[in-house]
Amino acid sequence: MKLRTFSLLSLLSFFIVSTSQFAQGQPSKSREDEEELKKTLYAFAKAYSSLPKTKKRDEVLKHVADNLTSTNITARVNGSITTDNGTFGMFAAYLNKVSRTENFGIVYEVKDIIKTQIRGNNAVMVYEVYYEFTKDGTVWSKGTETVSMLFHKYGEVWKIQHFTFFNIEDQKFRGACLCEVFSAPTGDYVAKTTVPAGKSYITSLTNYIFKGAPELDKQVIVDNYKFTWKANGELIAESVAPEGVTLTNKALGNASTKDEVVVLILQEFLFKNNCSKLVKKGR
User: Which residues pair with 74 in a beta bridge?
Assistant: First the structure.
């Protein structure tokens, strides 16, 4: 009886040791898939960061499925929360725009992979990424975001099927600006403008003094800046000296009303580096 017990124990021990050695010698399929998922993620991040320089949109798209969907949830520096949904076509169009924009820069750096879960041909990866967008050397926005990506395995290749961004803006220096324009009985104007400025938005008031007779060229004075509003509608920055640098005869565009003059100076001169677009409230 003792001999039989010993034999059974010996057989069980041999089975356990043999199985353990086999497992150590052959990486599990799940482990292999996890490594492939990491490679796909880092290749996607590298291709996306390099896009403004390489202009190779397909190097990014080869990592996503043709039926890609996305959700972007952003808590903005102004306190608002926005949700945007996307498709493969919208993502491809966005990449086209990025590749055509001159002097644009992207930093997209994966900082930490929080979780990876694999089941069959589907997988979920959650990670944290640092992002930064620049234009002409100026930072537009930067921060960190948490991303959840759903992958599907097509044959032997993992592709991104869906991604959801949870983004809390850290700093925003360029974006949509809001302005209100008010006229005084004297014919002069005041503009109230709200623009992104890093960790918050700032609101400023600017006075516009119009000098000159109707049907003739007019001079527009805004703080220490001088502009000429010609009778044909052309608006020119005649002589300004920001930080000691003199600019003369800089054409800003055309305006047919005083309201348009105010908006043009705001968008094309005073807040050109802050406003991707200017939304005018009121009249």
Answer: 82, 167
- Residue 278 is predicted with a pLDDT of 77
Q: Nearest CA to 134 among 112, 154, 163, 104? A: 104
Give me the pLDDT at residue 159, please. Answer: 97
Order of all β-strands in the sheet with 234-240: 247-254, 234-240, 225-229, 218-222, 201-211, 189-196, 175-183, 275-281
- Write out the two tokens for 97: 């725009």
Averaged confidence pLDDT in the chain: 81
φ/ψ of residue 50, rounded to 5: -85, -10
Ordered by start, the domain boundaries in the chain are 29-171, 175-281
Q: How far apart are CA 215 and CA 196, in angstroms?
A: 37
CA-nearest of 189, 243, 262 to 252 is 262
Per-residue model confidence (pLDDT) at position 282: 60
Cα(228)–Cα(225) distance, integer angstroms = 10
Confidence of residue 174 (pLDDT cuts 50, 70, 90): low
What's the topology of domain 29-171?
Nuclear Transport Factor 2; Chain: A, (3.10.450)
Cβ-based burial of 163 (10 A; exposed 0-12, middle 13-18, buried ≥19): buried
Phi, psi of 233 (to 5 degrees): 100, -10
Q: For tokens 């623009």, name the residue.
A: 195
Check whether 60 has a pLDDT greater than 90: yes
> Which residue type does 172 have?
K
Written as six digits, the tokens of 54 are 């390489």
